[in-house]
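Shipment paperwork, digital attachment
Item: protein structure file
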Amino acid sequence: MLKTLFVVDNNDDSPFPETSISFDDYLRDYPKIGEPKTRVVNLCDTSRYLSKGYYCSLLAEARHHGAIPSVKTINALRGEGAILWLKKNQIKDDDMPTEQQEFILCMGKPLDGRYGSIAVKVFNEWPAPLLKVTLLPDSGGVRVQVQRCSIKALSPEQHAVMTQILELNANSYWKKQKGDKRARWNMAMLVNKAEKVPPSDKSALNRFVKAGAKLGIAVDIIEAHELTNLNQYDALFIRETTAINHPTYQLASRAEELGLVVMDDTRSILRCCNKVYLHDAFNYQKVPSLKTEFILDDSPQTLDNIEQAFGYPMVIKMPEGSFSKGVFKVKSREELENTCQTLLKDSAILLVQEYLFTEYDWRIGMINGRAFYACRYYMARGHWQIYNHGSSRNFSGGFDALPTFEVPRPVLKAALKAAAAVGNGLYGIDIKEVDGKAYVLEVNDNPSIDHKVEDAYLGDELYMQVMGEFLNRLEQRGH
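Attachment content:
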């Protein structure tokens, strides 16, 4: 036997005066000894935090009464509501609007019978008894805005249809929607499908999703333009190349404001994306690194000093850059003058660093202050860097993936020290090793993790360790 309770703020709002109960009655009279399996349709006003509607769903969950909407759905729809982007191929032709449209859903059913295929997708995402849906079509599909709706906002005709739909649901089986396997946590994994050299390939992304599922984390792979409603998630995992003046940083900042567990966090992005900060921190905290100086101009005196201090060849770096971009080897005074003159148009500070060629660079993967994977990246053929952006054929060199216990001790110590200078996030520490000495090049937030490259030794365990760290942080944060 299954019992359905329709709970309202007060009995004046009830669609079924004989069978609905007020929130006060639900608070006082339930749970009951020997009661049948019970579910609650919460028709109270949920617009305010800690309102009767909020507590109705919260108490229903505590009492093991199936509740619709859940507290998570209530939170997701607060304020301006939630956004769902649907592409044209996700919508039936008859349901594709040509102009802005609005309609009301009751238990996933449109009151006026329109846009059934869209209604199903909306209700799958945010199961709630009453929803107001606004459709805004564009060339690529439809922007769907979803907001809570109260009984009082309905016309008499809409109220009558709502009553019929609720009566049908009172004794019917509620099919669990796709994805409603009660994952404890929801994560948005931010990617950019147009990125030429993304931090993770498709196979690696799918392994993150599978690892999350094993740990009770439902992972959505999503792009920045789709991520307009962060508050429906518990965590944000950025797998798009980060920058400060960029949506990745803006989304990380917004996610932190909402209390999400974020990786990369804004502090890590700020520190890792700027080599000026990194090398100043390396000096201050005595992280072993290559000789580095800052220059502010390209005056003859400045260039003379640089020549005397470094000799040729030397390396000139822009403060911001990733995947070896913004890094230049200069071999003469003419190249030095031209490079500095060009780069100083875009940056007030440049870094000059001694040139040290090795056959490979170490990459030590760090998470929360501990090393968990290691790679050796070999220089691109005929080039002095791992990546050769001027060659499509020999874009990058080879690699070896190793267990961390095989990493030379000086390299591992340098990686630990460098990570500590930045934070406790997910980092890739790039290090050169010569004659038993380690030199930290930089700390990469959002490091490369590709299938059959960084995971070549650990396999799926690499993804489990990353998702395990998210799980630990989510557990510490709580709901």
